[in-house]
Design goal:
It is built from three helices and twelve strands. A six-stranded mixed sheet has the order 1-2-3-8-5-4. A two-stranded antiparallel ribbon has the order 6-7. It has a two-stranded antiparallel ribbon with strand order 9-12. A hairpin with a 2-residue loop joins β10 (158-159) and β11. The protein has helices spanning 30-50, 69-74, 94-98, and strands at 5-11, 14-22, 55-61, 77-78, 89-90, 104-106, 109-111, 114-119, 131-137, 158-159, 162-163, 173-178. Helices cover 18% and strands 31% of the residues. By secondary structure, it is of the alpha+beta class.
Length: 182
């Protein structure tokens, strides 16, 4: 698989580690993305063993949807907060896709490959520590194709060797973290 970028530092006075990913494309079969997920899970588990209080975020273009085997089984990113322990991963994007919102469109159907998942210690209502508040797909009118065969799709920078003056064939995702200010 492609390499992973691990960024470790302080955010709001707390240790946060981010693993940035770009998993193999859909041109490759599912097992290669499952392998990538297993590698990321091993990294996550190793980092969490060394610091149980570490707040860890896994983000990137996974080239799979939240319910696909790579995300749900191999990485173990869970759908419901109630099922997530402090060192487990939570994936808030399941229901977003179920509601019909995605980050890229293929053959007229939305997919949600661009995900941000995080450890359960970022869940909860105790705002004295850094916590997950909400998530969104960044969608603005200028980011979409306005005409032609791909009307309604994210506006690419180029396609078929033609410059389209767009942004990307994927929409960005955001999570908001909050902490009480004293």
């Amino acid at each position: 698989t492609r390499g992973f970028l691990i960024v470790d530092g302080q955010l709001a006075g707390e240790r946060v580690c981010v693993i940035v990913n770009h998993w193999p494309s859909r041109g490759a079969k599912s097992p290669v993305r499952v392998h990538a997920a297993r590698q990321v899970k091993a990294l996550k588990d190793s980092l969490m063993r060394s610091d149980k209080k570490l707040k860890l975020i896994v983000m990137g273009d996974m080239n799979d949807d939240p319910m696909d085997k790579s995300m749900a089984v191999a990485l173990g990113a869970k759908r419901k907060p109630a099922d997530v322990g402090p060192t487990d991963l939570y994936n808030p994007w399941w229901d977003t896709l179920k509601k019909g919102y995605g980050t890229l469109m293929y053959k007229g159907k939305w997919n949600l490959f661009d995900q941000i998942v995080f450890t359960g210690n970022l869940l909860g209502t105790d705002r004295s520590t850094l916590k997950f508040y909400k998530h969104e797909i960044f969608r603005r009118d200028f980011m979409f194709q306005k005409e032609g065969k791909y009307k309604g799709y994210p506006k690419r920078t180029q396609a078929g060797g033609v410059w389209l003056n767009g942004y990307s064939d994927h929409l960005p995702t955001i999570i908001y973290l909050i902490k009480e200010v004293k």
